């Protein structure tokens, strides 16, 4: 059969635009849509079963468009296939409860994880797959291309150019996939400028890729996700941070790295200019970062440790500090940050030598998971950060050393020289309420059964983990040669958990002799020296002071 | 001694080889969530007794393992240890005990490098 029309997508877009023009009348002026007409616009452009990206980021949320989507008439708009990285707002699930949407492909659902699990078990949501960020973004360009994208930007001009502000996050990748495949892009903005008397500070998304702009009644919601109050860092976290710096960062000469979220890694950031300095490590470790603008990094930046930081998103309150430190952060000609989740994920995967993060559970194979029963939380970016980049070909001293340790004595393909990324899981053996971090069986397996998943939701696979760091010591899994050895190495740092108490003491001492397990004293660290006095900032106020008053924490962190 | 409702009391005793001799009582830590208070007093004799009052019930075997390892590090004799615990992790317990021992006379600390 001969195909007569090769431009159905373009025709479809033209039809949608024509429907919108007809429905909106005078409520549409150029690309600007009157705020109160947003429901009419959505009902005009959306078709049943459309793939829709409702921009939900880690931080920035297209909250006005989310509310509007919940309110469309399900008789006209239904069965949508939502393809978005984060489910953060209640509205992201409301659309499934009222039938507007039916199918979901996503990456992370932290705040909505429990409700998502309930909707799945009630048959209200069909989940396509749970992805990492990069994976979902990649599928935007293959088989999950949005037909309609609902995004958030800070401001638009009269032509429809968008300025995202520092929280650029997912917007470029969403808009590119949609605009170049016959889709419709609708942006909510906090401000409109006329382009003459008032102009955009810079253009993040060109007008040609944007179909409609609507001014939201309130600025879009942004979550300060990466702010950690130093006052809450414990002595044990200080001890573990000392071990990370001396036993891993210095040992491998780690210059390029990514830190996960949490107090454990915040402690490392706050020890660089104090403990790190005392070890003479300035300039030798921690110069380049793929990292959100963590307030806890301010003292290290001020002390001249940090050469560059590229960010997935921004962090509330850090705007002026970033602007004043443009040598360090990626900023536009206007001086403000441009983040980019897709590119920073790629940077973390391919250009960093180390990932370090916390987890909730680790099993005897070193698999780790943050999945908890009754919640479908997804993955976010950790699996890409915390995985060896098999396609990497450029060398660095840290990467080569890790590769040598992993390959020594092996033959054939397993012995072919190559490097390896350092992937460190940093956990206290017991979390709060004495929940053990080491378990015989991950809850992820039960969750798989409950939710009918193809695989257990393992965040970081054991064969990607190179080191496990607890208050008891560091287990270097690169040096293990058998499953039994790995198991004892893990038990050997699992403290007084049931897993740790069941260790073979002789095997563990043998691993310690070989340097597979290293205790604080093996590293020349006296746990009694691990006091909070070592932290370069011990409170939010200290961070503000270290920034010269440039950092302005959100109100909830202002406790002085 | 009566135990306030909700608390669990645990008692342990270890025979030590390192007499602490006479010393002024040593107090480290604070009673607060996730923390504990450790009091060391001279008692004479060749044992080290440990009395724990904890708000976290059901962790007897873990206390036994933590204190057993502590005694391996510091085989004290003639010491009475009293612990008021508010759900501290074993790591914090071990740290407080070691901090307390650091306040004892040099002989009780053994030879340290």
TrEMBL record, chain A:
Annotated Pfam families: Mal_decarbox_Al
User: Sorted alphabetically, which InterPro entries does this protein's record hold?
Assistant: MadA, NagB/RpiA_transferase-like
List where this protein forms a coiled coil. Answer: none
Q: Where, by residue number, does the polypeptide cross the bilayer?
A: none
The protein's name: Malonate decarboxylase subunit alpha
TrEMBL record, chain B:
List UniProt keywords, sorted A-Z: Cytoplasm, Phosphoprotein
Does the keyword section mention Phosphoprotein? Answer: yes
The record's subcellular locations are: Cytoplasm
Full protein name: Malonate decarboxylase acyl carrier protein
